[in-house]
Amino acid sequence: MAEHTVLFGGKPVQLAGKPVEVGQTAPDATVQDTSLAVRHLDEWSGKVRLIAAVPSLDTPVCDTETRRFNQEAASLGDDVVILTVSMDLPFAQKRWCGAAGVDRVITLSDHLEASFGQAYGTLIPEQRLEARAVFVVDRNGKVAYVQYVPDVAQHPDYDAALAAVRQAVGR
């Protein structure tokens, strides 16, 4: 298997965990929501899930990305849930969402076990951060779209991710 790397601060870093591929069953992961409740990604089975992994909501690209997906959520309908996963503490996520007016994206923290980062191959072990990536999981729990953004400082391909969501919904 080829190295699973991205650029972080302009330098290649090895990601931990196995990369997720289109067509496979989406892995479950244990994360924490902003109320400190332990959650599992499988709780949203039966819905189309757009899962965005970001290094930290308190950075410009992550801020813009999460706001963009929050804005797009209104047009995607009730069959879609948007989850943003970072290593930010739940308190920081809650504060950020309140300040940013983000109310349609569910922010989830991977800080406890790095369960998501390991399961989805997004963990940057040296910094204990998530690499930027976007996954779309269909109603049946199959991965329909994957993008590991090659440089964490870059934006994901919003149009491709949203097109994959619409296709999974049947629009």
Summarize this entry quickly.
With 171 residues, this protein is α+β, with helices and mostly antiparallel strands. The chain has four helices and eleven strands, in the order βββββαβαβαββββα.
What does this entry look like structurally?
The chain has helices at residues 60-76, 90-100, 115-120, 158-169; strands at 5-8, 11-14, 30-32, 38-40, 48-53, 80-86, 105-109, 123-124, 129-130, 133-137, 143-148. It is of the alpha+beta class and 171 residues long. It has one domain (5-169): Glutaredoxin, CATH 3.40.30.10. β10 (133-137) and β11 form a beta hairpin. The longest helix has 17 residues, at 60-76. The mean pLDDT is 95.
